[in-house]
Amino acid sequence: MVAAPRASAATLTSAVWSTSKTADGATGASYTYSFTAATSAALDEITMTVPTGTAGTPSVGAVSPASIAGGSVMLAGTTLT
User: Fold this and answer.
1) Measured between alpha carbons, how far apart are the two ends of the chain, in Å?
2) pLDDT of 59-78, one tens digit each?
């Protein structure tokens, strides 16, 4: 098996997000992020900025393709990694 080259600062395309609650200050909201990596290289990490005040414990939901599932997610300030 030959490993794919690693991407560095790869572009994400078709990036969209949605929320379960749209009222300002709503508690218990969940967010879904979706994107396509504009590379066929292996990705080690995806980092995005979220709005100030975003809080809670993030979790990994459905991943497609399933062959790349198994990662983790963390929130530090306004950075979701």
Assistant:
1) 28
2) 888 777 776 777 788 999 99
Query: Given strand 79-80, what is the order of strands in its sheet?
Result: 48-49, 79-80, 75-76
In this prediction the pTM is 0.65
> What gap in Å lies between CA 1 and CA 67, rounded to an integer?
15
Is residue 35 within 8 Å of residue 13, measured between CB atoms? yes
Q: Domain containing 79: what range?
A: 46-81
Instruction: Domain count for the chain, please give it.
Output: 1
Question: Which residue stretches of the chain are H helix?
Answer: none
